[in-house]
Amino acid sequence: MTQLNEKGTALVTGASSGIGAVYAERLARRGYDLLLVARDQQRLEKLAASLSADYGVKVEVLKADLTQKADIKAVAQRLRGDVHISVLVNNAGVAMDGPLIDADSDAIDSMLELNIAAVTHLAAAAGANFATAGGGAIINLASVVALAPEMFNATYSATKAYVLSLTQSLSSELGKFGVQVQAVLPGVTRTEIWERAGIDANGIPAAMVMDAGEMVDAALAGFDQGELVTIPSLPDAADWAGFVAARQKLGPNLSHSSAAARYKV
Predict the structure, then answer these.
(1) pLDDT more than 70, % of the chain
(2) Looking at the domain that runs over 9-239, which CATH code has it been given?
(3) Keywords on this record (predicted)?
(4) Cβ distance 12 to 64 under 8 Å?
C-alpha cells in the first residue's frame, strides 16, 4: 500500500517555466507531492522527473490549456474531488502590450479566460475541497499593477486587480474553515511572460527586475508569516498597512441614503 504524504499535494498551474516552475521546486523541497499543470507536456515531464529524483516526492503531470473552458473544467473537477490536494498555486497567466483600443479581440478573450475565468473556477473548486477538509491553502499570483493600473496595459492590470479583489474576498469566506489564502503581487519578474507578450524586458531598468527564485522565496516567506497580501519588493510593511487603513476609512461612507453635500449644487 502506498504511503500518503502528510503534507498532501500542491497543484501548480503554469508550472512548465518561470514562476510556476520555481514554486514547484520550492514546494517539492518542502516535501509536498506535486500536480503540475501547463500546456507544454514535454517541459512538464522533464521538470517532474527532475523534482521527483531530487526530492523523492510524487510528481504528476496534467496537460491543460487554461484558456479553454473544457480544460479549466477538467482541472477544476480534479481540484474539487481529490482529497490529497492541499495547496493550489494559481500562477498561470498571460500579459499583453499596447493600448486597449489597439488590442486584438481574440487576444483579449484569451487573457480574460486565463487570468480571470481559470483563476476563479480553480479557486472555487479548491476552496470547496479545502473547506470540507478544514484546511488547505490557495495562493493567487496577481501583480503590483493591481495597485498602479496606469503603469501598464489596461486589460492586464484590470485582470490582476480582479485577482487581488477575489483573494481578499476568498480570505473572508474561507478563513473560518481554516483555509489560508494569499495574493502575491510581484513587480517585474524575469520570466518568459515578457517575450510572449512581445515586450523587450531588456528595456526595463535592471534595478526594477527581480529573479523568479528570489520573488518566490519572498512570497513563501510572506505565506509562512500568514500574510493575506505579499508584495515581495515592498521594504516597509507599514506602507501596505497604511493603504489598507485608508481603504477601510472609506467604508462607513460608501453607502448612504443621500448623496454627499458636495454633489448637491
Answers:
(1) 93
(2) 3.40.50.720
(3) Oxidoreductase
(4) no
Pair 208, 253: CB distance under 8 Å: no
Angle value at C-alpha 239, between 157 and 95, nearest 5 degrees: 15
Residue 217: strand, helix, or coil: helix
Q: Which three cell numbers stand for residue 174?
A: 474561507
3 state SS of 115: helix
Q: Name the active-site residue from 23, 156, 162, 263.
A: 156
Q: Please write the tens of the pLDDT for every residue from 128-184.
A: 999 999 999 999 999 999 999 888 788 999 999 999 999 999 999 999 999 999 999
Give residue-wise pLDDT tens across range 183-192: 999 988 776 6
| Per-domain boundaries in the chain | 9-239
The overall pTM is greater than 0.85: yes
Helix, strand or coil, per DSSP, at residue 4: coil
